[in-house]
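Handout, section B. The chain below has 196 residues.
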Amino acid sequence: MKKLITIALLASGAFAADFSIIDKNSDGIVNQEEFRLYQAEYMTMKNKGNCPDRCKAKGPRSENKVVYDLRTGDAKKINPSLIGSIKAVANHYIEKKSDYKISVVIGGDAYKFFVDDLQFSPYDNDAELKALKPKIGPKLRELAEVYDVNFTMCDVGIEYRAIPEDSLYDFVEAKKTRSIYLIEFQNDGYAYIPIH
């Protein structure tokens, strides 16, 4: 029901009002009479210019944040899909002179793209990966160093796959589980984009 209220408010231009204070019944249904009274009060205050803080329009976000949940082993989804998407997002906000934060949480079959030294990893005999590394590696480093992209990797996954942590690219952090990284980023307001 809250989504319906938000949609109705967006249509009426009253998009920033705090309707969380309206009572709901045990099924989570909003009291319609109270909603109408609150909406009328809001519109009256807005029109008179003395709207309380809870119903004033919020300004633009000071920071735009996105986390990519990368789990694919498909090289085409890394380059150009992931790399192209990240550059497009970053360049958009750079052009707008707006702050941004981009993070990538690595798991699933994507580990192999972030191993710098394949020699002592489970990917030592992967001829296709060895051929891809010179193309993908520098582009991933560019994302980290030029666009300030934060790369994190599931520590349980590297242990399970017997990937030595010191064989990873130096811009990859592997201190927590994939789930913990994703929870923390999303709780911090990051938009979620899956690359599976």
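Note. DSSP finds six helices and five strands in the chain. Compare this with the example in section A.
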